[in-house]
Amino acid sequence: CQASTDTNDTSFRKDYLPVHGVSEVIVGVLGGGQLSRMLCQAASEMAIKVMVLDPLVNCPASSIAYDHMVGSFNDSATVQEFAKRCAVLTVDIEHVDVAMMEKLEQQGVDCQPKASTIRIIQDKYLQKVHFSRQGIPLPDFMQIDDLEGAKWAGDLFGYPLMLKSRRLAYDGRGNAVAKNEVELTSAVNALGGFAHDLYVEKWTPFVKELAVIVGRGRDNSISCYPVVETIHKENICHIVKAPAHVPWKIRKLAIDVAHKAVSSLEGAGVFAVELFLTKDGQILLNEVAPRPHNSGHHTIESCYTSQFEQHLRAVLGLPLGDPSMKTPAAIMYNLLGEDEGEPGFQLAHQLIGRALNVQGAAVHWYDKPEMRKQRKMGHITIVGSSVGIVEAQLKSMLKEEGSETQ
Ligand code: ATP
Ligand code: MG
Ligand code: MG
Q: CA of 31: how far to CAs of 73, 214, 230, 322, in Å?
């Protein structure tokens, strides 16, 4: 799928186009985490002004943003105040107060992607209902309201059974697996009980997890990045390999599913489509993120247009950039907190020290004020002439700590 070049479309915001620079307007981001930080980095190359709203004074985006408003992106009055200073509002997290976002839209605030998209995506059960109505292949799923409902789902879908929180899920926090009926109670309790809305998904014994970043312009032009393979450890993204080593037919199927999924949502920006590849060659959609995503970090070094630049282009109504890879291969390794506090920082710094000696490696450190176990603290991308070569380089970089790439 290619970016459309139809620039006559009236949905382009002519007033967002340059007077002197690339864009004169301020892009507001709800959230100042690492995605926001990397968005600010891409923006600075084109002198685009990105302003962030985050309660943390020293949030990752703070030192790089054009401006940082300290406040909650879930407080209506604060967001209203913030929105007044921005021409277009976007998000680095889907867990925002969507009713407030809808109200802002009614007042004429330009939100990209649209609040309707955030509403669908922030509730994983609603998301599943939405995509199944679009005829997109998904693992079977069912809402559960009590233990009886969970047992019924277990009888129907079998075990292991994946239980998920409908809302506020990220990095697998919101997922619990029951290996059998007895474990249902502990799985429900691990998710905070039925006071939180839960649903279940049939276990998918995937052979690989794939992901596609999709850019969507204000004129609804769509442009897909190459399919990547994502490797998760304990439900958290660990490694991304680009391009995915799968047959051409699978790549095409993955792109088709991703394209269809994003086409069913409203608004501009980049979207990440997480997919499962089954052993019989089926592609099932896991979930969609309405923003730049961990599976697209490699694009900073490996693609002509990074996912962050693409997001800015999309929300500003600029033409979408070229998503193709300019290097034959890339591998991204997440720097997850291995320990709390100072010992965790020391371990990360040792690895960064080794990465700085690796040819083709780029180190990204998010400058988070606190180190916690399993927290995404940074990442390393290695680019090179083949997937085999970048894999070998990563392996040798990790060898001293005895880690495996898979
Ligand atoms: P993210 O950080 O990507 O937002 P999340 O907390 O929303 O993660 P999911 O994407 O739902 O969580 O699941 C995390 C991981 O758990 C998946 O990438 C996959 O490895 C595994 N997983 C999720 N659903 C299933 C399933 N139905 N069957 C098997 N494994 C699954
Ligand atoms: Mg998620
Ligand atoms: Mg996920």
A: 7, 21, 24, 27
Contact call for residues 226 and 211 (beta carbons, < 8 A): no
Centre of ligand 3 from the C-alpha of residue 15, in Å: 36
pLDDT, average across residues 369-391: 95
Judged by its nearest atom, the ligand closest to the C-alpha of residue 164 is: 1
**ipTM higher than 0.95?**
yes
pLDDT digits (tens, 9 = 90+) for 211-231: 999 999 999 999 999 999 999
Which two three-digit tokens encode residue 259?
């394209």
Give tens-digit pLDDT for 30-87: 999 999 999 999 999 999 999 999 999 999 999 999 999 999 998 989 999 999 999 9
Q: What is residue 16's predicted lDDT score, i.e. its pLDDT?
A: 65
Protein residues whose CB sits closer than 6 Å to any atom of ligand 1: 139, 162, 164, 169-172, 174-175, 201, 203-204, 209, 232, 235, 274, 286-287
| CB-based contact 285:136 (threshold 8 Å) | yes
**Poorest-pLDDT segment among 11-25, 32-46, 320-334:** 11-25
| Residue with CA at minimum distance from ligand 1 atom 13 | 172
Longest CA–CA span in the chain (Å) reads 66
3-state secondary structure of 251: helix
| Number of Cα atoms under 13 Å in the Cβ half of residue 301 | 20
Tokens read off for 258: 């991703």
| C-alpha span between 369 and 87 (Å, rounded) | 30
What pLDDT is attached to residue 10? 41
* Secondary structure class of 288 (helix, strand, coil): strand
Strand partners, 28: 51, 89
Segment 348-373 mean pLDDT = 94
3-state helix, strand, coil in the chain (%, to 5): 35, 25, 40
- As a residue count, the chain comes to 406
Among 148, 154, 208, 213, smallest CA distance to 181 is for 154
Which atom belonging to ligand 1 lies closest to the Cα atom of 173?
Answer: 6
* 183 close to 283: Cβ distance less than 8 angstroms: no
